[in-house]
Structures are given as C-alpha cells and as structure tokens.
Amino acid sequence: MLSILSYLRAGNYIEAIIAILSRCFVVFCCLPIHELAHGLMAEKLGDHTAKNQGRLTFNPFAHLNPLGTIMIFLFGIGYANPVPINPNNFKNPKKGMALTALAGPASNLLMAFVSLFFYYGIADFEGVHSTVTYAIAYFFYFAASVNVTLAVFNLIPIPPLDGSRILLAVLPDDKYFGYMKYEKYIMIALMVALFTGVLDTPISWLSNVLMSVVGIIPRLLFGLLAR
User: Fold this and answer.
1) pLDDT tens across 161-189, in order?
2) Which residue has the higher pLDDT, 30 or 127?
3) What's the CA gap between 1 and 136, in Å, rounded?
4) Is there a catalytic annotation at residue 35?
5) CA-CA to 161 of 20 to 30 Å: which in 6, 37, 84, 105?
C-alpha cells in the first residue's frame, strides 16, 4: 500500500486525499472498535477490568495512542492504547488472553469486509467515471486496505501488539515472561524496522493475500449481480 507522501510525490492528489480521509476513518472509528472488541471479549470471558476503567466505549479519545496514531498516517499501520486485561479473571487465563487478543484483528477484518462490500457495490454498479464516485469507491478500498494491514501488523508477536498476547497461550510461562523482559528493546527494533522499510515486503504480501480472501464474497456477489 502506497504512503500518502508517495501519492503526493507522484502528483496523485485525489488518491492522497482519499488516503488521508481513510486513515482518519481508521483512527477515529476502526481503532476504537478494535479496542472495544478486546474489551467486549474480555467482558464475556469474565474480566471486567476494561469496563471498570471506562474502556468499553466507541469514544476514540479513550483509546488512541499518540505514537500509534502518527504511525497510521506515516505507515498505514499503528495501534491504540491496549485495553487493560487481567488474565487472572479468566477461567482459563491462557485461552482467555488468546481469544481477547484475536478479537481486535478479527474486528479489523470484519470492517475490511464491510468496506469492500461498499467498494465493489459502488464500482460495479456506478462505475468510477466521475471524480466523486471514484473518490467514494476508493475511500472504502483504502479503508479496507488499512484495516487488513492493521490486522496483519497487530498479529506480529511484539509488545504492545496483539500477537504478543497470543504468545502467552503457546509459550511456557517462563519463556514468555523472559521474552517480555526485553519489551522496550523489541519495540525500538520494531520502530527501526518500520522506518527502514524492512517489514514493508512481508506485511504488504500478507495484507494483499488477506485482502484477496476478505474480498472473495463481495467480489463474487457484485460480479454476478452486475451481469
């Protein structure tokens, strides 16, 4: 997925504006839903920590992390403040943490699915002949793309990303907490990798695969209806 600066350098100003608006949509809508999904799953499994701290809300300002938000606009991937979870409140702490962690990326994939539904619906029935129609259609495409990339990014097993919580379910406790001792250094390495573009190719490849999978049903449905 091209960056906003790439579009600007290429003179693709409409795409740049759409990319900015879609990222705003992700920051103020998708990230809060992502964190809310974590909290709701934890609540369902018996942990009321998020609810008690006022995190079961759609209010974006209850969830947004400044650095994670900046990353969304710079790289198209980022994170919000993690919802507080107390695994001791789960009947099965490891399983509870894994399910709670997976709920966030799952919500992003669901939002990508809905966005692609709108994209294919507009593109197949209205075409993209006018600037307005083009902008609306590709707004939903970019929103889907960013959501899928967020899901892939958050599954990387590096704190504070969701993948680090899933590790708790598959690693012995001593190895997991030994790994988490280096959390700050791992996070710095992640930032360096993002700035240098080391992760661009694997994240882009995985995101493209997921975009194709998530878009199968909308693409087939509207392709059949448009015949």
Assistant:
1) 899 888 877 888 888 778 878 778 888 88
2) 30
3) 18
4) yes
5) 6
Residue type, 203: I
- Half-sphere exposure (Cβ direction) of 161: Cα atoms closer than 13 Å: 19
How confident is residue 72, by pLDDT bands cut at 50, 70 and 90?
A: confident
As given in the structure block, the two tokens for residue 197 are 């573009």
What pLDDT was estimated at residue 124?
66
193: number of Cβ within 10 Å: 15
pLDDT at 110 over 90: yes
Instruction: With CA atoms as reference, report the closest residue to 138 among 130, 31, 207.
Output: 130
Bridge-partner residues for 80, per DSSP?
Answer: 64
For residue 32, report the phi and psi dihedrals to the nearest 5 degrees.
-60, -40
Q: 91 pLDDT exceeds 70?
A: yes
Contacts of 63 (CB under 8 A, 6+ apart): 31, 32, 35, 36, 55, 80, 81, 83
For 170-220, the DSSP string reads HS-HHHHHHHHTTHHHHHHHHHHHHHHTTTHHHHHHHHHHHHHHHTHHHHH
Residue with tokens 């980022």: 78
Gap between the Cα atoms of 149 and 209, Å rounded: 11
Cα distance between residue 82 and residue 29, in whole Å: 16
How far is residue 71's CA from residue 193's CA, in Å, rounded to a whole number? 13
Rounded Cα distance between 101 and 67, Å, is 20
The answer to whether residues 103 and 36 touch, using CB atoms and an 8 Å cutoff, is no
Q: What percent of the chain has pLDDT over 70?
A: 93
Q: Distance between CA 211 and CA 141 in Å, rounded?
A: 10
Please tell me which residue in 35, 43, 126, 183 is annotated as part of the active site.
Answer: 35
